[in-house]
Design a protein that fits this description.
422 residues, mainly alpha, two-stranded antiparallel ribbon, 10 helices
């Protein structure tokens, strides 16, 4: 029996128990054990449903990294929720377990959103060109989640909880921006890719600058949050270098620099051509202007209420143009993948240039059998292409017979799929 079938049976059993305990709780005038059993059954049913998207429907299929991480996260979260239901006494719920359960679920969701892209890419045998950016995103999401969860458990609720939440968002934002900047440290593709953009020395220098700005901004924001929230009480006032407006403006400026570098390097990987290349300049320019306005607001250099009101409108307009430009770049990328130029389509291959292993004479082998003209060694050759002949999507990681996920074209059988020359 495969894992998906087991999960479905557990889910159905938990739903049946939930119905039974729910009816029992109604007709027994709110009997507390029945209510707790109801909550436990619902938790198991919901947890089982959350595992379905990553569960394998084939018993011989191995667990992917995404499935392992997601299963562990959901499993521990369900155990914490059940512990919170049964924690304290005959009446009520125990706050001692509700805090870790809520923190685990709340902090984990954001971290999983940041990490799901790299984890999904690791599920298949993809090219490792972006392994640096993927590692930064994965480690950053893990550090943000772990740090916030441990601080929440150490400080509890109140001011300490506010500092844990602020630190979580700062570290999670750092992971995203740092991963964007690390795109400039990508390596040359190990496999031929259509419209692959090779990084240059300028990209690597910009990536280093962006990562340095990201680290500086993170320290400034964490220092500001520590002094603003004061999780350890008023004693933090005795520390040196209390943050002021210039401190916050510097944090905003470094954040803007890092975000601009990250967006530039991210869009540099898009195979935009012609006039569409101006989108990258427009996006970075809008981001830089919006960051400059926010930095100026922190420095309080506005001269009148009219200017404040107008600059707020300008800031909102820049953010709208920025978001629409990023979406337009993504749409253009998808259009380019779905309908690339005819020269980029797969070309039929009728022969291959080989060297005879016996006499070392060059030989042009065709599909099927061909013999070396010098020594008579027979070559038996067959071509198979693991890229979609319509859109050039890499199909090597997909099961045999599965259609192309990019354009939907059916995958042809080996021997009839045209291969890329070289």
């Amino acid at each position: 029996m495969n894992l998906r079938a087991i999960i479905l049976r557990v889910m159905l059993g938990a739903l049946g128990l939930a119905a039974l305990f729910g009816v029992t709780a109604i007709f027994t005038d709110g009997l507390i054990p029945a209510g707790r059993l109801l909550g436990t059954s619902i938790t198991i049913a919901v947890g089982s449903g959350m595992l379905l998207p990553v569960s394998a429907n084939n018993a011989a299929r191995r667990f992917s990294p995404l499935a392992m991480v997601w299963t562990g996260y959901v499993g521990i979260g369900a155990l914490l929720v059940i512990a919170a239901i049964w924690y304290r006494g005959p009446v009520g719920l125990g706050w001692g377990m509700e805090l870790p359960a809520g923190s685990w679920i709340g902090y984990g969701l954001g971290a999983m959103i940041v990490a799901v892209g790299p984890l999904t890419r690791r599920n298949v045998a993809m090219d490792r060109t972006y392994r640096m950016a993927e590692s930064v995103a994965l480690w950053g999401a893990g550090i943000a989640f772990s740090a916030a969860f441990m601080m929440q458990m150490a400080f509890g609720t109140g001011i300490g909880g506010e500092f844990a939440l602020a630190s979580y968002f700062i570290l999670l934002g750092t992971a995203v921006v740092a991963a964007l900047c690390a795109m400039g440290l990508r390596s040359t593709p190990q496999r031929p890719m259509r419209d692959a953009v090779i990084p240059g020395p300028a990209d690597r220098a910009l990536a280093a600058t962006g990562l340095l700005a990201t680290g500086t901004a993170t320290m400034l924001w964490l220092w500001y949050a520590f002094h603003e929230i004061r999780p350890l009480g008023s004693g933090s006032d005795s520390l040196l270098m209390l943050p002021d407006r210039l401190h916050v403006a510097a944090a905003s400026a470094f954040s803007t620099l890092a975000l601009c570098a990250g967006l530039w390097l991210l869009l540099a990987t898009f195979p935009l051509k012609g006039g569409t290349r101006l989108l990258r300049h427009a996006i970075v320019a809008c981001t830089a202007c919006a960051g400059a306005i926010v930095t100026a607001e922190f420095m309080d250099v506005m001269w009148s209420d009219w200017r404040d009101f107008m600059l707020e409108r300008v800031l909102a307009a820049l953010l709208i143009v920025d978001a629409c430009s990023i979406l337009a770049a993504v749409v253009l990328l998808r259009i380019g993948k779905a309908s690339g130029p005819a020269s980029d389509r797969a070309r039929p291959v009728a022969s291959a240039r080989l060297t005879c292993p016996r006499c070392q004479r060059p030989h042009i082998a065709t599909r099927g059998e061909s013999a070396c003209a010098e020594c008579g060694v027979v070559f038996l050759l067959e071509f198979r292409d693991d890229r979609c002949p319509a859109c050039m999507y890499d199909l090597r990681a997909l099961p045999p017979g599965s259609p192309c996920p990019e354009c939907g074209r059916a995958r042809q059988v080996p021997g009839f799929v045209p291969a890329i020359d070289g």
